[in-house]
Write a structure and sequence with these properties.
Layout (H helix, E strand, L loop, with lengths): L1 H13 L7 H10 L7 E5 L4 E6 L9 H16 L4 E6 L11 H4 L4 H20 L4 E5 L3 E2 L1 H8 L2 E5 L4 E3 L11 H11 L1 H10 L3 E2 H7 L4 E3 L2 H13 L6 H11 L1 H22 L2 H16 L2
Parallel strand pairs: 2-3, 3-4, 4-6, 5-7, 6-9
Antiparallel strand pairs: 1-2, 7-8
Helix pairs in contact: 3-5, 5-12, 6-7, 7-8, 7-12
The structure holds ligand LG6FSS7D.
The site of ligand LG6FSS7D has 27 residues, from helix 4, helix 12 and helix 13.
Main location: mitochondrion
Organism: Thrips palmi (Melon thrips)
Subunit structure: Homotrimer.
Length: 291
């Protein structure tokens, strides 16, 4: 509410016709309730933040959610948080990946904002000096897998959930930086096999190839394992840790820093292709029918 008032006051100050009187503020706040938050942050006594994706039903990644996630990471950095545990409010889906509705029959401006927000939020998560763990408490296809891969450690609830970069199954190609993340985790050979087939791995299969680091049987265990992973860094000098992480992730960081504009252009050109639009439409239809 305080933010709404501040924004309104600034807006009213810029216009001659509006007076930001208490009555005006009351009327405005009654007619426009604040939208629900799509990402919640809870910092525990040890200074470890649980960042929860909360966009029912499947945490598909739209511009709003990605924006909130990016802001949350920046805020946690500013507050010198000791660790980030990324998880989901759903019992069965970590994240369904990019919101296909952002890409299907899009307006050019929205599409550009969507992809730029994804690039920025991804880079913030991938390069943050804060230790990061994905507590994957449900399915994690495509962009959901990307978020998990961008963390330093992955604990997944099993055995019934699946994870992977399944883009080829949708007739689309995962961008280079998605591939770099997969290669970081499982090596070039396994990444090539996984990505060309668009394979979704069971939790056990993911563990076998190193796509996840630990399999647990429920979310509480996942959070406990994540806390354990983060706690080990209490003994490591932070500067050495930060420089090591930045250095070992250099390929992905450099790729985005140098190619963000080309990557945006490639995405914009690809998505509007009639055959891609047709494929996305059919995929959405198929999801509805499979219910
Ligand atoms: C072109 C350049 C490269 C772009 C890169 C793209 C990467 C991506 O991330 S593309 C997105 C890929 N995602 C998927 O393939 C996942 C699709 N979803 C699923 O497989 C399942 O939904 C699930 C296993 C995650 C969950 O299954 P569950 O049975 O619990 O839920 P559903 O009934 O399937 O879905 C509920 C509801 O949500 C809609 N939905 C699901 N996923 C998406 C999505 N990614 N984007 C938008 N909407 C999605 C689904 O259609 C249902 O909607 P309705 O209730 O309206 O029917």
């Amino acid at each position: 509410m305080a933010v709404v008032c501040r924004n309104l006051r600034a807006f009213a100050q810029k216009t001659s016709s509006l007076r930001c009187t208490p009555n005006f503020l009351r009327l405005y706040s009654q007619s426009k309730p604040a939208p629900p938050k799509l990402v919640t942050v809870d910092v525990d006594k040890a200074g470890v933040a649980t960042v929860t994706l909360d966009r029912p039903p499947v945490n598909s990644l739209n511009t709003g959610l990605l924006e909130e996630l990016g802001v949350a990471i920046k805020d946690l950095e500013a507050n010198k948080t000791r660790g980030i545990i990324l998880t989901s409010s759903s019992n069965s889906v970590f994240s369904a990946g990019l919101d296909i509705l952002e890409m299907y029959e899009p307006k050019k401006q929205n599409l550009s904002l969507f992809w730029t927000t994804l690039q920025n939020t991804w880079l913030s998560l991938y390069r943050t000096s804060i230790p990061t763990v994905a507590a994957i408490n449900g399915h994690a296809p495509a962009g959901g897998c990307l978020l998990a891969l961008s963390c330093e450690y992955r604990v997944m609830v099993g055995p019934k959930f699946t994870i992977g970069l399944n883009e080829t199954q949708l007739g689309i190609v995962a961008p280079q930086w998605f591939m770099i993340c997969m290669k970081d985790a499982v090596g070039r050979r396994q990444a090539e096999m996984a990505l060309t087939a668009g394979k979704m791995f069971s939790t056990q299969e993911a563990l076998n190839i190193g796509l996840i680091d630990k399999m647990v049987s429920n979310k509480e265990e996942a959070i406990a394992e994540a806390q354990k992973f983060i706690a080990q860094f209490a003994k490591i000098p932070p500067l050495a840790r930060r420089m090591t992480k930045e250095s070992i992730r250099q390929e992905g960081i450099k790729y985005m820093e140098e190619n963000a504009i080309d990557d945006l252009k490639a995405f914009m050109d690809l998505v509007v292709q009639p055959n891609i639009q047709k494929g996305l439409g059919m995929y959405l239809e198929a999801m509805k029918k499979s219910k």
